[in-house]
Amino acid sequence: MSLTANVHQSIEVAMYQQSVERVTPGAVLGRTIIGPDGTPLLRAGAVLSAAYLRSLRSRGYKTVYVRDGLADDVVPDDLVSQRVRTTISDHISGAFAQVALVACERGIGQGTMDDAERQLGQETLPVDDGDALMAQLYADVEQLITELLESDTVAGLESLRSHNEYTFQHSVDVAIIGVLLGKQLRMPRTRLRDLALGCLLHDLGKVYIDQAILDKPGALDEAEFELIQQHPRMGFELIRRLPVASMLPAHVAYQHHERQNGRGYPRGLIGGSPVGARVVDEQIGSRQMLLIAEIGAVADVYSALAADRPYRSALTPDAIITTMSEMAGPHLNRDLVRTLRQLVPAFPVGRWIEVTGGEFRGCRGIVTDLHLADLEHPQVRLHIGADGEALRDPVELDTRRAHDLTLRCLQAHESPTDEQMVVLEIA
Ligand SMILES: [Fe+2]
Ligand SMILES: [Fe+2]
Asked: Which of 130, 157, 192, 395 is at 20 to 30 A from 139, Cα to Cα?
C-alpha cells in the first residue's frame, strides 16, 4: 500500500505540530501525550487550558499537535507506537539505573579506564535480576523489530517527547533508525537483534558521567571532554559483562563515535564503505568499523540533531538531512546516509513549511502528504500568502511538479501567528 493511500484512508483527525509556547489556551489537542510512566498525560481531544500548557512547559514538552480546522485530512504517522516507545524507554532507564548502582558500589569512574576495567573484573556484573533485565530488553528488541518490519510507511521520527528523558528516548530513537536502516539493507533478523540491542545500550557508558557535564550548555573543557570520550569504551566494558548472547552489541557502543576518516574516538578506527557483503557477514577485530556500528553512528547523529538539547534547539528535519549529507564521507558512511535519505522525510506530514524559491516564494503552509519515491518533494497546502495574510482559498501544491520550487521547514517557534489562523477560520 502506498503512503498516500494510507494517509487518505485514515482520515480521522485534523492536526499539525505547534510550539507549546505559541498554543492559545482553548486549542484542542490533536494527539495524546504519553507521560514518562507510559500512561496518557493528556488525551487527544482535550482542550488545552492555560494551566495544562504551563504544566506541559514545566515538564519539558516543546511541541504538541493541535486541531483547529486548518489541515482536516492530515494525519502524521508514528513509526512505532507511543506506548511501545515509552515502555522500552522505561526499561532502558531501569537498566541504566541498575548498572549505575553496581558501579557506585565499586567506586568505578574515579580513575582511568584501565582502573575501571580492573575493578569490574571478568565476571558477569552482579546486576540485580540481570537475566530478567536482559530478557526484558531482548523482548523489547523483538517487539521493536516486528513493528518496524511490518510497517510499510515512512514517517517523521518526531515524537512528542520531553527533554527531561533525553538519554532514554534518544536510545529508543537510535534503535528505531538503526533497525530501519538495517531493514532497508535486508539485514537478517539475527543481525537486526544485535544492532537494535547495541543501539539501545550504546550510551550505557554515560552512567558514570555527571549529568551536569552531559547537559552543560557551553563548550566542554579539556578534562570534561576526556571524560566524555571514555563513554564508548566504558559502555563496551559494561555490555560485555551483561548476559548478552553476542559481542556485537558491545561493539556498537564501543565504535559509535568513530568516524570514516579515522578521526573519531576512542580508537581512531576507519570506515569500511561500501556496505556490500558486510550486511550478513563480517569479523570483529580489524581496524575497520563494523557495519552495525556505522549504522549506529548514523542513527546516533540523526537522533541527536533531531532533539532539543540544553545548548541548542532541535534542527528541523530538512536541516538534519542537509547537515548529515555534509557529514557523509569523512564522518558518516556515505552509502548509509544515502539510504537514510530514502527513509526519513525532509518535510514530514503535519509540519509547517515556507516556500523559499519559485512561483509561491514567501508563502507558508502545511505538508499534507509524501511521495515514497521522492521524499524531498511533498504535497503541501499553502494557507498564508507571501504578504503574511491568510489565503481565502488554500493552494494545493504537488511540489514535484512545481518548477524551481524550494522549501524549508519552519522552526516550531516560527509558526504563523495565531491571529492569522483566527482570520482564516472566520474567512
Ligand atoms: Fe555516545
Ligand atoms: Fe548517543
From this structure: 157
**Ligand 2 mean position to 256 CA, how many Å?**
8
Query: pLDDT value at position 378?
Result: 93
What residues contact 416, with CB distance under 8 A and at least 6 apart?
Answer: 352, 364, 383, 384, 388
237-280 pLDDT tens trace: 999 999 998 999 999 999 999 999 999 999 999 997 788 878 88
Percent of the chain with pLDDT over 70: 85
The CATH number for 3-67, chosen from 3.40.50.300, 3.30.1330.60, 3.90.105.10, 3.90.1170.40, is 3.90.105.10
pLDDT computed for residue 323 by the predictor: 97
Calpha distance 257→223 (Å, rounded): 18
CATH of 82-341, one of 3.40.50.790, 1.10.10.10, 1.10.3210.10, 3.40.1380.10: 1.10.3210.10
Task: For residue 234, give the ligand nearest its CA.
Answer: 1
Ligand with minimal distance to 167 CA: 2
